């Protein structure tokens, strides 16, 4: 086979793949926007699992697990700290005493059905924390995905 | 031995199946794959989604072409290029100490040296197909003989 036809065939395969990808993406339910939108870091925003994973990889965020301590001890997101949903205001304030107000914080609980992560995020925003995000799908989804956990 | 048409058949079946398998999860969940690419911090954020949308289809198409033996030489050329890119990306992640997912197939598989070993095997198979494209049981043989 001469190099010219090899190049031509290769180009056709690449173009065909790009077209298939674009067409499928436009009709698929799981399709995404063509241009990546930067993470919306407004306090109180909900994170997708992918965004949460990115924040964990970057290592700058403080992860707070708001499930009960026995659930936390069984397994939790890597490097997450535990502050159960039944903690008092005083306990929360003591916990955050040494945490600067501009620290990136991610709260999560078990699944979208629990609301302790949202409650804590609300209270932290009230305390003046500017970058509080909620991983709403919670530990259930995280575990299914086989993402980094520790016990 | 290396030029045996049966060896080419074996290798293109293996590499084809690996690439088809690798593409399925990524096609099903491009948002997730985009996040995986982003974790490598190698390409501009603005083109991450385009790559996440199209790269899995390139893998799928090349995989199918290799498996069926249609235009498999061109497909192996693309796959050789892709594997070299993957090896560079994973090596750089290891070198920078990033503890990230590979994005090779499925979720929860980390980008470590084991992936690089796998990739070197795939690279060797792919190069064999590229340099000895003569192959048995290839659909492409049907219209070549006419």
Explain this structure.
The complex is a heterodimer of chains A (151) and B (146). Chain A folds into two domains: 1-35; 49-150, 3-Layer(aba) Sandwich (Oxidized Rhodanese, domain 1). Chain A has helices spanning 3-27, 49-58, 69-74, 89-95, 116-127, 138-144; strands spanning 62-65, 76-77, 81-82, 105-108, 132-134, 149-150. The termini of chain A are far apart. In chain A, 44% of the residues lie in helices and 11% in strands. With 151 residues, chain A is of the alpha/beta class. Chain B has 146 residues and is an all-alpha fold. Helix content of chain B is 73%, strand content 0%. The chains are: A alpha/beta (151), B mainly alpha (146).
> What would you give as the CATH superfamily of the largest domain in chain A?
Rhodanese-like domain
Order of helices and strands of chain B: HHHHHH
Terminal CA distance of chain B: 28 Å
CATH architecture label name of the largest domain in chain A = 3-Layer(aba) Sandwich
Could you give a quick summary of the protein structure above?
The complex is a heterodimer of chains A (151) and B (146). Chain A has 151 residues and is an alpha/beta fold.
Name the features.
A: 151 residues, alpha/beta, Oxidized Rhodanese, domain 1, 2 domains, four-stranded parallel beta sheet, 6 helices, 11% strand, B: 146 residues, 0% strand
